[in-house]
Amino acid sequence: xxxELVNVKKSYREPNGDELPVLDIPKFSLQxxxxxxxxxxxxxGKTTLxxxxxxxxxxxxxxxxxxxTDITKLPExxxxxxxxxxxxxxFQTFNLLPAFSALENxxxxxxxxxxxxxxxxxxxxxxxxxxxQRLSHLPGQLSVGEQQRVAIARAIANRPQLLLADEPTxxxxxxxxxxxxxxxxxxxxDHKISLLVVTHDPEIAGRFPRTVPIAEINTVMQPx
Amino acid sequence: MSLFTIALKSIRQRLLAxxxxxxxxxxxxxxxxxxxxxxxxxxxxxxxxxxxxxxxxGPKGSQLELVLxxxxxxxxxxxxxxxxxxxxxxxxxxxxxAVPVALGDRTEEGGFPILGTTVEYFNVPYAGxxxxxxxxxxxxxxxxxxxxxxxxxxNGWKVGQEFRMVHAGQDDHVHDERFTVVGILEQTGTxxxxxxxxxxEGFFAIAGHEKPVEEAIAREADFFGETYEEVxxxxxxxxxxxxxxxxxxxxxxxxxxxxxxxQKEVTAILIRMKSEEGKGYLAQxxxxxxxxxxxxxxxxxxxxxxVPMQRLMTNLVGNVRQLLxxxxxxxxxxxxxxxxxxxxxxxxxxxxxxxxxxxxxxDRMKVFTIILLESITLCxxxxxxxxLLGHGGLILLAPxxxxxxxxxxxxxxxxxxxxxxxxxxxxxxxxxxFLPGLxxxxxxxxxxx
Lengths: 224, 449
Description:
heterodimer, A: 224 residues, alpha/beta, five-stranded parallel β-sheet, 8 helices, B: 449 residues, alpha+beta, nine-stranded mixed β-sheet, two-stranded antiparallel sheet, 54% helix, 11% strand, elongated
């Protein structure tokens, strides 16, 4: 899987009616199975960029080509399906649904793609995360580290080609940070998934083979 | 994981709120079931198919009053008809059965209506082909009586019980004569359950029930358009016997004698017409012909009880029934609104949940469908529970209602209209789930993650 962004621009309208440009990326790419981090301070447009790559937010202009498909050209429903099938997402606050057990949260990740809901695969993934004994536990009954591992299992449940992680260690205690990062890295390597991690922490960013400062690719952040 | 499972999970997540909203629908539906059943009971009570006769022949006057007094025994009788008229009808070749009834008095205990009649009354089936059944015997003897099931239950009467009757009128005079209960009727679910049936001869024999001779002659002369002398001559032997056996000169202790026909009067005559299908004559056709013929004269009227009762049902009871149905409809709608408020209010808490599902790849239609399924599931579960609750509640209440009112209730009686309730509740669910569903549809993913 490859990812290529060309001339991606995004701005928001402020309450006073002014346009506030947040992203202007002339070019950014990620190779198949490459693992990279995007680092920068808050407000640098990292999350917006991640949402654009995931097809959650549409850019004002430019193209976002994921595995040869320009997702900006897809209608919304097709984009949603593309996201379900090709892109995994690990959120800062895990975003597990509290009424669903660990297994059900992973199954939920499979429910919106065209593929079948593979219970055995979901169990296998949770086993891989060391959660075989926690399948029927609700998120509230799991530790923070366990919750993050369920979130990782859910993100890769549909065998995506690209995994996007937004500050994946922000809610994890310092001792578990390394474990979570290692796990994400290993899982992506094992499953041949490209990885793009967004973080504000240069130390975390430095753990990945390639580190891209957001200011380097986003001209909005660059001094005039 | 299907969308339905996801909807179920969401319901479970807000179990208390979900249960309460479903319960409000259940209560609305249960109430609707109760109204439908009450409606059925009302209809059955006033359904004159239960009344096994084609016509009621009575004195001229209000048709409704004649029906209310003769069938339901809830109104005083209009006037009386001479016994001779009954005998004439009995000879009519178009009439299969003519049963005389005398009404007006009530029991001293409980105030139940008393109906003097012949045993033939119990030979005519009611409610289609249902037959009267007695616990022991029929009132063949002059001072014998059978009582309806409700009378027996409420008065605690058993076979062998003696009772007196209160004379109709303003003086509330209690007759000295005593009747003995010889049988208790099996429950019929009709006004017969709260009626006391006494032998007609006994009814006539009660002091004060026989019409004074002069008055009887004058009444009969007037009724049949004859002269006083003609009637006197017709009943010469009766009159002679009455004079020879003047009641005022002695008491009845130790002996009995039949009331002369001249002095007998009936309140109404219940008629079944002959049906000769082979010759193309149906009882109903004959009843209409007979009724029209009587209308031309001045003697009596023959009423098909359906007509005035139908009018009453449509104009008065029908409106009340309709009102009750509308009211429960409103209750269901109010329950629906409460579900709407509950789901709609939960939407603000659930934006994040919806955004997560969208981020996981659920398109707008899927999240809309999930919310709609939630609403449908809640309404349907409430609806089905309501049907069970309605019938279940009636199973518990039926014996109490029956004991209090005498209305026989079958709690498991299923009104086909109940089948409409389910699609109605589903439609309501779609309606109330639409707006919250739309909110889910429009949820901004990036903003709510």
